Amino acid sequence: MSPVKKKFLPLLEESEIRHGKTVSLYGPDGKLHDTETWITDSLDSIVGWRKFVGDYELKENCDFITVWMFVHEVTHEICFAIDRTRISLQKQLSKRISKAVFGD
User: Fold this and answer.
1) pLDDT for res 34
2) Which contiguous run of DSSP H or E holds residue 68?
C-alpha cells in the first residue's frame, strides 16, 4: 500500500472509500482551485487534475510537488494544498532514481 493510501484512506468513511470523496484543492499560490477534486480508493480518479496541471504550468521531470493534506478549520472538510519546486534538469531522471522516487 502506498504512503498516500496509508495516510489518506483512514480518514475516510467506508462509503467514501467506495463512492469517492470531494475535497478542496489549493494551488501553489494559495488560491482555491476552481474545480472540486474527487478522490476514490484508487487515488487515480482525481477530476480536474489535468486542468490544475495546465493552470499552474507544471512540467514533468522539473516540477516536484509537495502535497499537504489537512482538515479545514471552518468546514471540517479534507483539503489538499499543493506546492511545487522547479528544478531545471538537463536530462531525464535515471531509471534507478525514478523507481526509488515514483515506484515505476
Assistant:
1) 61
2) strand 63-71
pTM of the model: 0.67
- The whole-angstrom separation of Cα 36 and Cα 48 is 7
Q: How far apart are CA 26 and CA 24, in angstroms?
A: 7
Write out the H or E segment, with its range, that includes residue 39: strand 37-39
Q: Are 85 and 31 in contact (CB under 8 A)?
A: no
Edge-first strand order for the sheet with 21-26 is 37-39, 21-26, 78-86, 63-71
**Cα–Cα distance for residue pair 22/37, rounded to 1 Å:** 6
Strand-pair category, 78-86 with 37-39: unpaired
In the numeric block, which cell numbers belong to residue 1? 500500500
C-alpha cell at 88: 531545471
Q: Which residues pair with 70 in a beta bridge?
A: 79
Residue 44 has pLDDT above 60, yes or no: no
Give CA–CA dist 76/63, Å, rounded: 30
